[in-house]
Structure formats: C-alpha cells, structure tokens
Amino acid sequence: MPLFQTANFPATQETANGAAGSWALWRLDEPEEELLARLDTTIFDTAELQQIRVEQRRKEWLGCRLALQTLLAAYPVATDLSTRQAGSSLRMHKNELGRPYLLGRELHISLSHAYPYAGAALHPRLSVGLDVEQVREQLLRIRHKFLSAHEQALLGDNLEQLCLWWAAKEALYKLNGQPGLIFARDMLVAPSDRPGQLQGWLKGQPYALHYQWHGPLLLCVVA
C-alpha cells in the first residue's frame, strides 16, 4: 500500500483566509526500488540517501519525501517563463540544525517516520511540527525525562497516553525548530474537550495539537 491517508488540519492561529495545513501518511510496503522510482529528484536530492547504509532507514527517508511530494501537488510551481522568477524551482534542503525546508516556495514542512510508516505535514503560512510514533514500552522508563510532575501523576502507567504526550511534545519541538528545549519544563500538554485534540504550551504559548490513532500507530501535528 503506497499512500495510506491524507487529511487537513486547522491552524492554532487564525489566518486571514482561514488557510489550513495538511498531512500525508505513507505505508512502506513497496520495495525500495519502487519508492525511488516514484520520487521527483528535481525536488529531492538523493545524495543523502546514498549515504544511508540500512535499507529500512532508506525506505523511511523515501517515504517521508513521497508523502511530502503528495502534499506539494496542491502547490504547483509556475511553469510559465513569463511569470517565473529566476531560481524559483522547488527544492528541499536542510538547515544547519537538520530541519527540512523548501527553497522556491513559502511553505512550511515537517517530516517523521515510525517504520513501516512515514509522514509529512505542510502549512502554507505557519511553522508546523509532525510526529509519527509506535507505542513502545521504553516510554515507561523515560517518562520522567519528558513529563512534568503533574503530567506524570495524570498519566500514570497508561502506555498509550504516554505515547500521545511524547508525540505531542515531539511535534511542538519540531515546530519550534531550535535546540535547547527541556521537554518536562518548556513544553506542557493537557487533555482537550475536543475529540482528536490536545492542548499544548510551548514556553507559555498555547497551541492546539491534532492527533489520530491507526491501531498502534499515532500521528500528531501542530501549527
């Protein structure tokens, strides 16, 4: 199964035209060769891919970019030479911190994977953060590293809830895009009355986090 699901999500901050973000989730059932054949190499440089030794990691790399490529279809680059500026072709790069960005379009992106799934999120106006997770026992052992004392008391040993809070904070971390955040102090998460949402705070700034479960797989996104 290639493309697994796509969806839109509203932004935390209201925009003048009500622009929404979107995300796509890709299930990595195809062989690596088929994934690579689908990739638009005018957008994505495969030099980084060639440095990855493990096949699973290469497939995750490809899946993230194929998910993003699906979303980018809604934002075509102009092909009319009379309206196209020099250097306006679309290309994905990474900054000095390893955060992906697009050169040639004012679009904000985030990538994440949890084998055998890979995903991408895109927003036309706002910074965006995406995290894809599988439920894993390790979160029980490290919860003190990413949860405040209040959050630990709230969640207890509920592994699914621990996974949800971890994914929410990972999404906020990616949205922030800067190192140095302390998960248990600088990012706080609380339940929401709205289905499929959590309340989040990044250094006191409120955000609405959107999440979906697909069996043991969790997707969480924020803008």
From TrEMBL:
Keywords: Transferase. GO terms for molecular function: holo-[acyl-carrier-protein] synthase activity; magnesium ion binding. Residues 127-181 form the 4'-phosphopantetheinyl transferase domain. The keyword Transferase applies. SUPFAM superfamilies: 4'-phosphopantetheinyl transferase. The keyword Nucleus does not apply. It holds the Pfam family ACPS. InterPro entries: 4-PPantetheinyl_Trfase_dom, 4-PPantetheinyl_Trfase_dom_sf. Gene3D superfamilies: 4'-phosphopantetheinyl transferase domain. This is 4'-phosphopantetheinyl transferase superfamily protein. It comes from Cesiribacter andamanensis AMV16.
